[in-house]
Amino acid sequence: MAQKNENKILKFLESKKNRSRLYTVLFFVIFGVFFIVNNSGNEPEKGPYPPNYVPGQNNAAVKEIAPNFSLNSIEGEKISLADYKGKIVLVDFWATWCGPCRKGVPDLVDLKNKYSDKGFEVIGISVDRSNTISQVKPFAKEFNINYPVVYTDEQTPGKFGGIQYIPTSFVIDQEGYIVSKHVGYVEKEQYIKEIEELLKK
């Protein structure tokens, strides 16, 4: 029986037309696997909060006053957005378990190093829940985070219109206006472009 099946397979492969079909199928399978692997780290993760996100609004100039918040940091301090009035602030909603968030953190560290002396700040708002919240402080240490990291409360995401996916970030200008919103991983060059524009003001 096994010999008969083997003969059928060999006969199938001997056909030039069948070999061509097989190679075509293999090509698309390999291409599909390659595409998934290379894009899996950029998709935003579904967040734990009610949605108010409209597809296509990424990077939209929102131009509304950023809502204030006062949240506990991983160092036990109260961090308020109002304390940074006059600075460019990047507010980043993220979580330790979120792949795109982890990918973007080193970029935020670099931005802080590059622009901190020019009036730029990053505030990371962790949306980790009870099962992962203990990992936030070790995560910050492991990734050498050099900007304030705070724990969210139930109200803050709603103040920003609801956070459906993470990471979700907001760039806030020196006057306290939200000038852009990003959902998902953002290339560092995009942030640099926006920061440089605001520094010209």
Percent in helix: 25-40%
Strand content: 15-25%
Overall morphology: globular
Low-pLDDT stretches are 33-41, 46-60
Descriptive terms for the model:
2 domains; 201 residues; 20% strand; 6-stranded mixed sheet
Nutshell version of this structure?
This protein is α+β, with helices and mostly antiparallel strands.
Layout: helices, strands, pairs:
Blueprint: H1 2-14, H2 16-39, E1 45-46, E2 64-65, E3 70-72, E4 78-80, E5 88-94, H3 99-115, E6 120-126, H4 136-142, E7 149-151, H5 156-159, E8 165-166, E9 168-172, E10 177-183, H6 188-199
Parallel strand pairs: 5-6, 6-7
Antiparallel strand pairs: 1-8, 2-10, 3-4, 5-9, 9-10
Describe this structure as you would to a colleague.
With 201 residues, the chain is of the alpha+beta class. The chain folds into 2 domains: 7-40; 64-199, Glutaredoxin, CATH 3.40.30. Helices cover 38% and strands 20% of the residues. The protein has 6 helices and 10 strands; from the N terminus they run ααβββββαβαβαβββα. It has helices at residues 2-14, 16-39, 99-115, 136-142, 156-159, 188-199, and strands spanning 45-46, 64-65, 70-72, 78-80, 88-94, 120-126, 149-151, 165-166, 168-172, 177-183. The radius of gyration is 23 Å and the shape is globular.
